[in-house]
Structures are given as C-alpha cells and as structure tokens.
C-alpha cells in the first residue's frame, strides 16, 4: 500500500535515524504532558532501545546461522558414519558369493561341469538364500542330493503350470 510513498519535508522522520525532529518532539511533549509525566527524551531512549533490540536480534540470527552451519556439518558427519557402518555391515551379511558357491560345486567330483545338474546349479545360485544354503551344507553327498531335489521340485512346478494352461 505504501510501496512508492516517501515522507519528505520538515516533519519527515524514520525510526532508524535515531534523532527525533523538533516538531515531532514538541507534539510528543504535548501528548505526553496530557497523558502522563514522560520526559521528551524518553521517546528518543525508546527509539534507541528498539534499535539496540533490532541489532541484538540480527546478531542473534547471525550467531544462529553459524550454529546452524555447525549443526549441519555435524549432521553430515553423522550421515557419513551411518553410511560407512551400513556398507561394512552389508559386507558382513552378504553371505557367500556366486564365485564361492561355484568353487564348492567344482569341488564335487560327481557333478559334470557340462551336465544338467551343474547348469541348473549355476542358475539356482542366483538366489541368495539357496546359494547360502548350498555353501552351508557340509557333506558333498548332501549337496548333490539337495541339488537333485531342487531340480525335481522346479520340474514339478513347471509341469503343474503346463497342465493348468492346457
């Protein structure tokens, strides 16, 4: 509403100037004498106090910004630590790799590397849980029996799906 409005002339005054023009001071004295016993200097003192409060508020905001920057820096540090912990925990809980499972598979003399069971096992090891179970089995005979069982279960699923379609 008052965007392009400016006070000019003898009675122009802004609180930031800190000096009350004599005409306003006289008006203030008249009003003050009617309302109360406030001295004219008190309005100047009030203006100075307001200015000091404004300056203190700005100083507080600047100090708060510095505190905010420190807080942000601290939060970034915490975030980096959390990511590092998560990645180190992830490496601990990943379980055996596909390479480890294939090495265990190669160590079984009964399984031909060009045979169906071997090829089936390589696809099976894409499933983390099944790969982990295979590596956890201690005896080679049990590993072969487990692979054969998994192959039979998958073939039964495929056959039942085929019969449902037709």
From TrEMBL:
Q: Where is the composition biased (Acidic residues)?
A: 30-40
Q: Where is this region: Disordered?
A: 1-42
**Stated name of the protein:** L10-interacting MYB domain-containing protein
